Amino acid sequence: MRDSFWMYYWPSEHDLDTLWEDAEIVLDASVLLNLHRYRADTRRELLGVLRDLSDRLWVPYQAALEYQRNRPGVILQQSEPIKSLRKAVHKARDDLMGEVGRFPSGRHPSMDRDALEGLIKKVIRRLEKYLDRSERALPDPTGRQILVEDETWEEVTSLLAGRVGNSFSGDALAVIHEDAKRRIEGRTPPGYEDSDKGEPERYGDVVLWHQMLERAKQSCQPQILVTDDRKEDWWWVVRGMTLGPRRELIVEMRDVANAGFYAYQPGRFLIHAREHLDQLISDDAIEDVTQTSQLRYRSPSMLAQALLDSFEQSQRALDAFGSSQALLDSFEQSQRALDAFGSSQALLDSFEQTQRALDAFGSSQALLDSLQVQGSESTGRLEASEASESADSTGFGEGAGDDSAGDASDA
To answer: Do 400 and 388 touch, CB atoms closer than 8 A?
Structure first.
């Protein structure tokens, strides 16, 4: 049984130790692009780990190409949520002041309109200052810091000197594209989850995989792929729980290159690197890496619920005019949501959706309805992702969720 279906059995501790001792560590574009999303201290720590492992690093040409193409967009993307939030803050200010303006001053037993207006202005100023600080911390959008003075880009360039694979020739690439078409039609991993993309972008994962196969044949080393790609054509997912890389990939790597293969999400890779390679990696860095991945794939539902809670509290405060403290509490809850999600692209997506609802219906109730629908539709995916993380905590799963979209720029 084990001999025939070896790919379904968890490797022994000896096999894992051998894998981590001998394997080449392959980085894909999503991992490199995430370096531009992490906090500065996390980025420095992770780059230090990669430098310690530099003699074992390798990047497929396809991954390096996608990194170079998509890096400016990822950097500029970080300013978009701030712009969207400014619009949302200004609209919230106008809506709240309009509601307060309809309150008859001097006729309510427990509220003073002037005091309430001052409180709203104070909270809005706090939000605007927070956004100002966040914007100043980003690269200059005029382009020079992106094209000339990007320190992270320079460090990655230095780190990967001589560690990037070769591209395929035109004829070889045409053959691989034909293989990619067969994989898409037969839903054979990897690559079929990109069937909705145009050509040749839909073939990118298959090109990367063939480059890994060729590299393994040449180096005679097992391959550990580190990727933030969560599509199910890379991961073995059963009822929302991720049990590791696709078994088909493990088998193909052995059959074609006579080499071992495994894959890790970035957070799990750091945990195992700390365990197997004695790397000094802080819990804070691992948490930041893990949360960045989660926010890219899970934040629409998480954010929807957080904002729903805060807006419902604000609505209750305005409806009841119970006290100015209730309104302050609701804004503080909104501030915590901004602190948690302010740098995520998913925040922009969520606010764009709610902005469309407001534009269409012109009422705060439309906003609540929109958020409630979004939260309801994502409940199943969120529960499945949480189940996946539960499996991941056992050391068996690798933490991939069930969201197959991610950022288009990284796929």
So the answer is: yes
Provide the whole-model pTM. Answer: 0.67
Element (H, E) at 238: strand 235-238
Asked whether the beta carbons of 370 and 88 are under 8 A apart, the reply is no
Fold of 6-77+143-281: Rossmann fold (3.40.50)
Q: How far is CA 186 from CA 111, 179, 181, 191, 193, in A?
A: 67, 10, 9, 11, 11
Identify the residue whose tokens are 């799990």: 268
- Among candidates 375, 311, 365, 372, which has minimal Cα distance to 338? 311
Please give the Cα distance from 337 to 348 (Å, whole number). 13
Cα 320–323–325 angle (5° rounding)?
Answer: 130
Collapsing DSSP states into helix, strand and coil, what is residue 265? coil
Helix (H) or strand (E) holding 85: helix 80-101
Residue-wise pLDDT tens digits, 81-92: 788 888 888 888
d(CA 23, CA 262): 9
Q: Where are the domains of the chain?
A: 6-77+143-281, 82-137+292-377
Q: How far is CA 123 from CA 90, 93, 120, 360, in A?
A: 12, 9, 5, 27
- Give residue 224's region: left, alpha or beta (phi > 0; psi -120 to 50): beta
Confidence label for 328 from pLDDT (cuts 50, 70 and 90): low
The one-character DSSP state at 343 is T
Can you list the alpha helix ranges (DSSP code H) found in 321-344?
A: 324-341
**343-352: b (≥16 Cβ within 10 Å) or e:** bbbbbbbbbe
Q: 407 near 230, Cβ under 8 Å? A: no
Kindly state the average pLDDT of the residues 166-193. Answer: 95
40 is written with which tokens? 């500065």
Task: Measure the CA–CA gap between 361 and 369, rounded to whole angstroms.
Answer: 11
Give 374's pLDDT tier (boundaries 50, 70, 90): very low
